[in-house]
Amino acid sequence: MTGSYREDMWWHGRLRCRGYRITAGRDAVLDVLTKSDAHLSAEDIYMRVHRIYPGIGLASVYRTLELLAQMGLVYKFDFGDGRARYELAEGSKKDQHHHHLVCNNCHKVIDYNDFIEEEVELLKKTEKGLSRKYDFQITSHLIQFYGICADCRKQE
């Protein structure tokens, strides 16, 4: 572990209840993601973790991220820039559900959670209809909208 127990280390229970050890590397990767508001690539995470835990290798970071994504602790995104990006699925900073606006030109990603009433109604109706149609209990969703941001449109 990278330090003493903190209340924001909610992932400890999740790892233990699934039979995984809490290694220094896993702890450091999750700590970096907890402290970041950005959508970090594996390389970005590695550079930050390496400062905290110099013994970790890039391959270990990749394996840890894949495990955490499979467990549902982190989301893995493809925003069209050729690099997977990661974000905590929950926790103190990620309790607020949000969607993404992705610029096709500069690949800027904007998180938004100020949903309009029509969007909320449509999503509830869609989830209810899909649940009924496929006898499937929906627990979450990820939505990404692609387009051109205001800065890129100004440059055209």
Features:
single chain, 156 residues, alpha+beta, Arc Repressor Mutant, subunit A, Dna Ligase, domain 1, 2 domains, 3-stranded antiparallel β-sheet, 3-stranded mixed β-sheet, 6 helices, 43% helix, flat, disordered N terminus
Strand content: 15-25%
User: How large is the count of helical segments?
Assistant: 6
CATH topology title of the largest domain:
Arc Repressor Mutant, subunit A
N-C termini distance = 49 Å
The appropriate CATH architecture of the largest domain is Orthogonal Bundle
User: How many domains make up the coordinates?
Assistant: 2
Secondary structure elements and pairings:
Blueprint: H1 11-17, H2 24-34, E1 40-41, H3 42-52, H4 58-71, E2 74-78, E3 84-88, E4 99-103, E5 109-112, H5 117-134, E6 144-147, H6 150-155
Parallel strand pairs: 4-6
Antiparallel strand pairs: 1-3, 2-3, 4-5
Helix pairs in contact: 2-3, 3-4
